[in-house]
Amino acid sequence: MPSIYDTQIENVISKLEATGQQVNSELIRRAYNFAADAHKNVYRRSGKPYIEHPVEVSLILSELKVDDITVAAALLHDVVEDTDVSGLEIKEKFGDTIYEIVNGVTKINEIYYDTFEEKQSENYRKLIISMIKDLRVIIIKFADRIHNMRTIKFMKPEKQKKIARETLDIYAPLAYRLGMYKIKNELEDRSFEILDPENYTLISTKIRDSHESMEAYISRITPIILNELEKKNIKASVSGRIKHLYSIYTKLTGRKKSFEEILDIIALRIVIPDDGDCYNILSIVHQLFMPIQGMFNDYIAAPKENGYQSLHTKVVFENKVIEIQIRTNKMHEVAEFGLAAHWRYKGSNNEDIHAIDEYITKLRNILQESFEATDPKEILEELKINLISGEIFVFTPKKDLITLPVGSTPVDFAYKIHENIGNRCIAAKRGGKIIPLSTQLENGDIIEIITSPKSSPSYNWLRFAKSSRARTSIKHFLRREEEYKTVKLGREIFTNEIAKYNLKIEKSIVQHVLKAFGFQAPEDFYKAVGNGEIRPNQFIRKISSFKKESLITRLVQKIIVKSPKNFVPEEHDKSVNIEYATCCHPLPGDSIVGHKTDDGKLIIHISNCSVVGSIDPSKLVNTNWDVDQNEDFEVSFKIAGEDRPNLLYEMIKVINSLEINLSSIEIKVENSIATGSFTGRVKNLNHFIKLRKKLFGIRGVLSIERFIQ
Ligand code: MN
To answer: Is residue 524 among the annotated active site residues?
Structure first.
């Protein structure tokens, strides 16, 4: 004996056949039997066998005039998710198309709405559309949702609210976008009832109360129109209806009007054959009743984006305003069923095909994707849509939805959450498994970012980061890091260079160079030094002009060791033949040491001459100066300065002024720095120090070094 569900399936099959299409009834029965077996011994909260749900879903779909594939897939839609049956088994038994559709429905069911916020609804809608490769997936999902809403009273209250919210914010708007008003209206009203029972009851009670009078009103106006059309030999059906509750509610809240003030609760619909002229009907209506100015909408010349076409006008009858909609049969089908209405026209005449093509073009525009679909027989087959091409949708571990450009990686994800997360990310987990930062993310991925305080962005990231937010942040970070390194290098150069003059970084020096080079912050100055804009000789020159005296003293202190005041060799033996070492050319005033040679000479070195270190200590004697005031001594020194005309001339002028005789001069110019090596004779160390002071007074002189080995 056939069960109630067996009978319903036969009912579904005959409804499909009634649309005039070829129906593979064997496929539908096979899918039904397979699902019934898979869901065997499972019951819904209502206490009914689970198979009731897929059967009811297929019944809802048969009202929408879909094809046999859609119905078969609908019967199987919960099998993979809720039973032991694998996707592979569906593929083997029912083929690729049905497998893909069932898979698509399962995927949508896996979307997390747990922390779903109203402001995120648009993203969720996009996510769903982006996941759909075949429009039949969303049509099944709508039917699934309608049945779940019809049986929602078996759920726990908080679950009811959650599902209703999701339905109102995500599925109803999607149905609207696809032009499926009938589905949209039912989803809205059922969600409204759950989410706002007070207002739902209020409005439905008021409608019930005034229902009789509204019915009477409709029954008075309808014959007036029908008679007039009959006189003109026009076939038409006229029907009145009360608008659905949720749209009345939004009108009440949106316009802040009372129920009594809402004039257009009733809508009258005139549907004429496809070859009829809607504008002609409009003029007849306007002759019968007074139209309200500015209340006419021509959705035939300018259809809504979802494909909706109709003429809307508002007229006055019995001192009440009523909305009248005028459309053809075909427009009516599209308005009721949206995309699914195409079934109706499968295989009809060329004009129909043209109309379908036009509608498809519009849909394509809405859904922002192009596809090839010229043969109406295969419209849904060909309607493999890959919508919303620019974005993907992924989740945080807390199930927050994150929108990213297609091709995005964990790095983009991390920066989308927060710049600090991006700057510190080191790896990522997808579904709990570690993935490289360069991995391209996919729709629906759950991504967890692993950070490390020691991690930072690298140039490598710019090779795969996709979002402009991530790229900007990475570049910004790298530039900052580069700057930091340059500043650090500049500070090092500066410290090392001034250390040569026994100077340390101190406030007065830093302030002086900042002022001299026109910088506000020390970092800016160090940066200029670090990247070579300011060379060491430039800042040394500025410092020397500022700290001239002390700089010279410091140089002298560094090069020359202070000497005792008495110039008497301790073991002065007049018979000893004294010579001055040619390696270090000691000057009276230098601390000296004597080297007794085997041939009886005493060679005088500067104490810290490097040659002294290699002499047998037993042959060294302490020696002090005891020299004639008229004697002079050889000294060699090197002057470095900025190359400029007259530099050498000014140096020689200074040298002459101190009565120093030069025996050799050698000048080299390299990188606009002039270096002069001089050898001459001076009286003593003080004489040389005086010379050095004077030489430093010459503009452009950077350093003076005495040769001491
Ligand atoms: Mn389901």
So the answer is: no
